């Protein structure tokens, strides 16, 4: 009877929505763990519509909800919330796993003893929430006050102009800063492979070469992945009224770990304070690094999940965990309208069917990105590069070195010192 009802439920929603989830743990002796995001929960399907669908997974999986943004009440269909206490007001009787994408910086983000080239670093999309436009104005004010700091801005620029703030970041950069200022302000706009045009190893090099990380937005408070990258790299953060319970719990919400600005107008002074402190003494930031680096947090994550299994009266075995690249995987926005190499959406009903056959899932997982493996194997959805060509790439003669008969005639005349004649021939042929 249950099997017939399950098939009817899935069939009723055959064309309902696009979805994917992070596979945190594969089923085995104990249940597996699937983690969805609030972006999907709020925008792709409503709780009423997907409640019965998700129930069909609970035979083999424990379901979690990763909070990519604040939410009033935790939906009871999910067995646990994955975030900090500031992102959900009412847990609805469910457990809280107090580790999220912002606390899972991979090992490549680590302190470096090399000389710091940039004093100030900001990495963010060129969208309204990220305040790239305001960041440029902050730096202009810092320059106007006579500070000769070096700055790096790495910003990914959406293809649609209506999604950009500022609409033309390169024009704003050229109009706002003098040539001398641009020599100290490295502006790196990126238009390809959004939202992650670099791998994390490359991105980590920017953090290792910078003294201070700045996050100039009061809209995105709390659980910031880029701020976590900075702290894991031993780089202090300057922010605006950043509410992060982990900082308060560990007594880290103050210099030299975090420099808080009360208002937007306070940011330039706090930035300079942080830069000058780093230039003079470069304090040890290991206490804050331990809170945000996966090297330290993965054991705490497993410990909290083991307690969750006990609470749910489920057996727990430390096996089948897929913990690589969780800083990216667990917060992915699957099923969104905008194209992104960071999304592997598939039909919701097809996804449910596949998740009800966990043995087949385990067979296709072969990389550090299991969701990509599943999407590629079962749903034909992949952003991987095509296989390498078997034939060697043809290397034509560069256009600058190609010679026509007329070119050779002009060159021969030059070689015998007939420059006036060569000039006449050239002008007749090419003008």
- Please indicate the percent range of residues in DSSP E strands (runs of 2 or more): 5-15%
Main beta-sheet strand count, sense and barrel state = 6 strands, parallel
Which class best fits the helix and strand makeup? Answer: alpha/beta
Largest sheet, spatial ordering of strands: 11-10-9-12-13-14
- How many domains make up the coordinates? 3
* Residues in helices, as a percent range: 25-40%
Count of individual beta strands = 15
Mean pLDDT across all amino acids = 84
Shape by Cα distribution = globular
Termini separation:
86 Å
Regions with little confidence, pLDDT below 50 for 5+ residues? 5-16
How many whole angstroms does the radius of gyration measure? 27 Å
Q: Helix count, per DSSP?
A: 18
Concise account of the structure shown:
This protein has 431 residues and is an alpha/beta fold. The protein has 18 helices and 15 strands.
How would you describe what is shown here?
It is a single chain. The chain is α/β, with parallel strands linked by helices. It folds into 3 domains: about 1-105 and about 295-380, no CATH class; about 120-290, 3-Layer(aba) Sandwich (Rossmann fold), CATH 3.40.50.2000; about 400-430, no CATH class. It is about 40% helix and about 15% strand. Mean pLDDT is about 85; it is low at about 5-15.
């Amino acid at each position: 009877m249950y099997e017939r009802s399950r098939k009817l439920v899935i069939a009723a929603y055959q064309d309902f929505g696009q979805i994917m989830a992070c596979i945190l743990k594969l089923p085995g002796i104990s249940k597996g763990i699937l983690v969805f995001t609030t972006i999907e929960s709020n925008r792709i399907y409503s709780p009423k519509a997907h409640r019965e669908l998700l129930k069909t997974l609970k035979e083999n999986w424990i379901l979690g909800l990763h909070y990519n943004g604040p939410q009033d009440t935790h939906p009871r269909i999910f067995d646990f919330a994955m975030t900090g206490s500031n992102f959900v007001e009412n847990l609805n009787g469910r457990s809280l796993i107090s580790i999220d994408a912002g606390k899972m910086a991979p090992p490549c983000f680590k302190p470096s003893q090399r000389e710091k080239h940039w004093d100030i670093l900001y990495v963010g999309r060129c969208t309204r929430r990220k305040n790239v436009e305001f960041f440029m104005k902050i730096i202009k004010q810092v320059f106007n006050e006579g500070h000769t700091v070096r700055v790096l801005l790495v910003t990914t620029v959406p293809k649609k102009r209506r999604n950009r703030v500022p609409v033309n970041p390169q024009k704003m950069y050229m109009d706002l800063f003098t040539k001398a200022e641009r020599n100290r302000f490295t502006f790196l706009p990126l238009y390809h492979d959004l939202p992650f045009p670099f791998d994390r190893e490359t991105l980590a090099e920017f953090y290792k070469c910078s003294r201070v990380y700045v996050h100039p937005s009061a809209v995105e408070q709390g659980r910031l992945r880029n701020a976590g990258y900075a702290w894991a790299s031993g780089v202090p953060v300057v922010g605006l009224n950043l509410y992060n319970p982990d900082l308060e719990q560990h007594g880290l919400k103050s210099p030299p770990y975090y420099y808080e600005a009360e208002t937007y107008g306070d940011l330039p002074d706090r930035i300079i304070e942080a830069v000058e402190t780093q230039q003079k003494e470069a304090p040890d930031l290991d206490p804050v690094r331990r809170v945000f680096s996966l090297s330290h947090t993965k054991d705490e994550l497993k410990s909290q999940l083991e307690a969750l299994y006990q609470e749910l009266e489920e057996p727990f075995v430390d096996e089948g965990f897929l913990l690589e690249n969780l800083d990216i995987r667990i917060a992915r926005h699957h099923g969104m309208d905008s194209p992104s190499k960071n999304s592997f959406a598939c039909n919701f009903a097809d996804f449910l069917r596949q998740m009800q056959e966990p043995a087949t899932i385990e067979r296709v997982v072969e990389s550090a990105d299991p969701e990509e493996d599943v999407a590629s194997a079962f749903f034909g959805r992949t952003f991987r590069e095509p296989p390498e060509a078997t034939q060697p790439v043809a290397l034509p003669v560069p256009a600058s070195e190609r010679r026509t008969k007329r070119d050779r005639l002009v060159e021969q005349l030059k070689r015998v010192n007939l420059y006036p004649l060569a000039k006449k021939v050239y002008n007749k042929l090419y003008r």
